Amino acid sequence: MWTRSELKQRGKLAFKANYWKCVLVSLILVILTGASSGGSAAGNSDEEGNSLMNALQTASQQTGISVGAIVGIVFGVIGVAFVIGLVISILVKNPFIVGCRSFYLNNSDAPANFGQIAAGFSKFGYGRVILTMFLHDLLIGIGFFLLIVPGVILTYSYRLVPYILAENPEISGMDALKKSADMMRGQKWNAFVLDLSFIGWMLLAIITCGIVGIFYVDPYMHATDAELYKAIRDHYNGNGTVNY
Fold this sequence. Notes:
Number of helices: 11
């Protein structure tokens, strides 16, 4: 039905034809999702733990407040920050993610307008987008909470949801999730191997401290992902039974 080389070639041509806008949209996706081909490694957890305990003890001595009370305050602040972050994620981040995916989907056919990234707030139905993407994140999160493997499987099952929302303004949230799962049936392994085929580029992005990732690898991967959706969609529209 499709080959990795064909999708990557089409993705590369599409993003190079609208280079700077694709780079900017890709950078927005990195900021929103925290996922980049040039990520950095975590620090030493033991050293960080010792430093944290020393800081708590110092703060306790200077303020006269017990370490337990300080820990309670810290966790309270973290809890409030988490709730605020969750609300921002649901109401702001997810609509932008759908808009960015829509940008790359449109850019596959002709250089897309940068304003497409805001379409998730109006054009596609804001309430429908935030509800569907909330369910999308919730189901994947439950999968990772249970075990890593179910989380990975669900990630690939629901990979196409943002594109489906962008192309089907009337579809319900549950139908969008079901349609993505139906379309990805038999395609998850191929999509996983497609992702693995970028590992050399990801290593180069890490070596260059993310510079190559921002200006080449990330937009290249996002453009190729849009081509993957188109290939699977066209196959089912022509030969499959997924009609919503």
